[in-house]
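Figure-free illustration: sequence to structure, shown twice.
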Amino acid sequence: MGAPAKYFIVEAEAMPEIFRKVAEAKRLLETGEETTVNGAARAVGISRSAFYKYKDSVRPFNDMLHGRIVTFQIMLKDEPGILSAALNVFAGTGVNILTINQSIPVNGCAVVTMTAETSAIQGSLEEVLGAVSASTGVIKCEILAG
């Protein structure tokens, strides 16, 4: 028989309330809504000791299987303002860009790989791809993963 599982994915309603409160306290600290552990713990109604006991063991799960996190690859002409215009298209559709990685331009073209969170997207991914692809200087835009 194999070793017991080290991690579990559990629906929030099925787990003890203390875990949900620790996760909320961590969120408050990460977003800057609270600046101290004491303030975050007090805001969610737990003790500091409970926060410290569970803080390293509780993490929210971002469901990437439902199209929330998407990796795009865009090939652009190497001209000033082209990347900025493409990014503005993404921003205008509610896509939240998480990472951007651009290669050094070769033969007048640069490849940009972006990871984005799409839960607030306005329209469909196909519409976003079409809008970005139609931007001046964009040679190709496609989804790599997500």
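We now fold a second protein in the same way, so the two outputs can be compared directly.
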Amino acid sequence: MSAAAPSPQSIATLYSDHHGWLQGWLRRKLGDASQAADLAHDTYVRLLQSRRSAALGEQPRAFLTHIAKGLLVDHWRRQEVERAYLDTIALLPEALAPSPETRLMVLETLVRIDAMLCSLPEQTCEIFLMAQLDELTYQQIAERQQLSLATIKRHMRKGFLACLAAA
């Protein structure tokens, strides 16, 4: 049985009571007031979309912190992916450098791929990357991982299904 979504009134009260604290907490974590404001906003948006109003309970700051921590992790992962991509294209000759529009499209795709890979169980991700990046055959992966060929195929199926879901 799913819980009811938080009421707009409870969210408004939560916002007025805790927004300043949350934004300050995020500012200390990020060192940037505008990014903190964005993530505080995103925290309340996520809360509005949540179906777990009971989680607000008597410790709303703990629940807000839980949501905000997840958003922080996403933010830092995106920065890491963006930095790696920008470092890579900085090595290209200027004539081959992608346009700003192409950079944004590629970056968004890389972020989605990263999120998809992170959603997979560790072993599935490792097997999937061995096949896709290292270009190992399923049999080679099975031998390296000391698993059956059928198990490797199951992991690959999970990886491909995750790719389809992320598309």
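Summary for the second example: The helical segments are 8-30, 33-49, 60-90, 100-119, 122-132, 138-145, 149-166.
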